[in-house]
Structures are given as C-alpha cells and as structure tokens.
C-alpha cells in the first residue's frame, strides 16, 4: 500500500480537484491518496470527486488553514471514464456572494473617514479565501472604478482573482465618467437587478 500526497494549498477552485484527479489516475497500486488544501470549498469538491470515483473520502482539519482529505484506493482506476463531479466554487449552500457599492465612502458621518474605510474594505475583500463572485458599482460608487480612484489597484487585484466588476452605465454618464472607466465593464440596471436577485448573499458596505 502506498501513500500519495498532493499539495494543493493556496490553490483556487477547481485546481485541487484537477490535481487530485491526475494523481488518482496515475496510481498503479492500491494505496491512500491524501490531498492538502486550505479551504472548506475544496474539501467539499474533493468529497464529490471521491463519490464520482466510488471512493470514500475522510476529511480532517489539522490546523488553521490546513485540511487533509484522504481517499483509500483499493482498485486503481487508471484511465477508466468516471462521472465528473459538480464543482462549487463558492460558499456551499450560500449561493453567490455579490457586493453592491453605491457610494465612494463607507457609512455615515465623516465623508473623509468614509473614504478611508471604503478603501480598507475593498482591500480586505481581496484578502478573503473566497472573494465575491460579482461587485456592482452604481450612483456615487461608480467613481471607484474610474481613473483617479484610490482603490483601482485593489479592484484590479480582485478582477485578477476572477471577480466580475460591473459599473452602472447610466451612473457613469450622469457623472461625466463614461470615458474614465478603468476596471471591469459597463452594465445596466436590468443586469444589476438580475445579479442581486440571483445572489445567495448581498453585502452593501
């Protein structure tokens, strides 16, 4: 019996499942396939993958940011076709996370403080293990996605992580910023309503 360890720490969906599937297909003898990941979404997807291969998966949290998923392989599958697991690249059971930003500052009181808070909020979103799927910017929030915004680098970082960034076209036109959009793409109110209606959770800073 052999023990194969797959290091998928720091990898985003669906990479842990891809790596685990490759390792499973490469096994020629019975043994244990152990995958190390750092988030529960990966654990859930690996469990689905195991079920698709008719294997039992056992998961264990061994520390902060360390989950180990183990599969006992008694009959190596080689290149045999299997049922592909449905992957969920967002919080299980929670649906998609949408962030709706309608102002260039956060909260009420001091606008100057509010701008500092908003910048910190957008930076913090980029540090989450699972960033939001979509970010919507409208009314005064449209200024944040345009040239001159102090949050442009943070938003480009989020876009690089696969976050969909959409800014209301009517709002850009109202503020004379139609040609100033520097990250993401233009959307309309119908699409904004669709995104909000289909979200599992909406955050409005």
Summarize the structure in words.
With 205 residues, this protein is of the alpha/beta class. It has two domains: 2-73, TusA-like domain (Translation Initiation Factor IF3); 97-203, DsrEFH-like (Hypothetical Protein Ychn, Chain: A, 3-Layer(aba) Sandwich), CATH 3.40.1260.10. It is 31% helix and 23% strand. The chain has six helices and nine strands; from the N terminus they run E-H-E-H-E-E-E-H-E-H-E-H-E-H-E. It has helices spanning 15-26, 40-52, 111-125, 152-160, 169-174, 189-197; strands at residues 2-7, 31-37, 57-63, 66-73, 97-101, 134-137, 164-168, 185-187, 201-203. The strands form two sheets. A five-stranded parallel β-sheet has the order 8-7-6-5-9. Helix 1 packs parallel to helix 2. The longest helix is centred in the middle third of the chain and has 15 residues, at 111-125. The chain is elongated, with a radius of gyration of 21 Å. 30% of the residues are buried.
Structure summary:
By secondary structure, the protein is an alpha/beta fold.
Topology:
Elements lengths: L1 E6 L7 H12 L4 E7 L2 H13 L4 E7 L2 E8 L23 E5 L9 H15 L8 E4 L14 H9 L3 E5 H6 L10 E3 L1 H9 L3 E3 L2
Parallel strand pairs: 1-2, 5-6, 5-9, 6-7, 7-8
Antiparallel strand pairs: 2-4, 3-4
Helix pairs in contact: 1-2
Question: What characterizes the major β-sheet?
Answer: 5 strands, parallel
Give the number of helices: 6
Please tell me what the overall shape is. elongated
The name of the CATH architecture of the largest domain is 3-Layer(aba) Sandwich
> First CA to last CA: what distance?
53 Å
Percent helix = 25-40%
């Amino acid at each position: 019996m052999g023990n194969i360890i797959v290091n998928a720490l720091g990898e985003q969906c669906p990479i842990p499942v891809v790596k685990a599937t490759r390792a499973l297909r490469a096994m020629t003898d019975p043994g244990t396939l152990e995958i190390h990941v750092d988030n529960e979404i990966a654990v859930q997807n690996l469990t689905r993958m195991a079920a698709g291969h008719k294997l039992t998966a056992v998961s264990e949290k061994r520390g902060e940011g360390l989950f180990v998923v183990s599969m006992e392989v008694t009959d190596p599958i080689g290149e045999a076709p299997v049922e592909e697991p449905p992957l969920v690249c967002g919080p299980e059971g929670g649906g998609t996370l949408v962030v709706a930003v309608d102002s260039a500052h956060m909260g009420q009181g001091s606008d100057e403080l509010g701008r500092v808070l908003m910048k910190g909020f957008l930076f913090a979103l980029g540090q989450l293990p699972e960033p939001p799927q979509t970010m919507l910017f409208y009314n005064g929030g449209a200024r944040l996605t345009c040239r001159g915004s102090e949050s442009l680098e943070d938003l480009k970082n989020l876009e690089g992580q696969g976050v969909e960034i959409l800014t209301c076209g009517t709002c850009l036109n109202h503020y004379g910023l139609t040609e100033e959009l520097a990250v993401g793409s233009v959307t309309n109110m119908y699409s904004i309503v669709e995104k909000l209606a289909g979200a599992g959770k909406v955050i409005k800073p």
